[in-house]
Amino acid sequence: MKQLAPFTMILCAVFLLGVVDGHGQLRVSLNLSSRPDPYLSNWAQRKEIVIVSVTNTSSNAIDVKFDCKVNKDGALLANTKRESMQMLSIQPGSTMFYGEDLVPSPQ
Question: 3-state DSSP call for residue 41?
């Protein structure tokens, strides 16, 4: 993913897409550093920048994909390509994900 010029404020929206058999089976908590690195390519190397906690309240694993968007002042700056994101299996209980899971390194 290309590097972005430094900016003062960042908003990262994280959505989980996948197969969900019912309502309210996943709870997602996003923790973003108050001063995140402006270069998305560095997010995968520094786990403290963004942490996503996903809690699966069902008794079955749920397959999901992350769909991430980075906005500044309401303008889209970057987003992941859903088709290139790997399918993840969320087991019952809590699972943590970091920048490397949200912003994949270029192949």
Answer: helix
pTM for the structure as a whole:
0.70
By CB atoms closer than 10 A (0-12, 13-18, 19+), residue 76 is: exposed
Give the per-residue SS3 of 56-90. ECCCCCEEEEEEEEEEECCEEEEECCHHHCCCEEE
Please answer whether residues 10 and 38 qualify as being in contact, where contact means their C-beta atoms are separated by less than 8 angstroms: yes
Give the domain ranges of the chain.
11-102
| Spatial distance between the Cα atoms of 29 and 26, rounded to a whole number of angstroms | 10
Q: pLDDT of 47-92, one tens digit each?
A: 888 888 999 999 999 888 888 888 888 888 888 888 888 888 999 9
Please give the Cα distance from 83 to 71 (Å, whole number): 21
Parallel, antiparallel, or unpaired: how do β-strands 75-79 and 62-72 relate? antiparallel
Q: How far is CA 35 from the centre of its chain?
A: 17
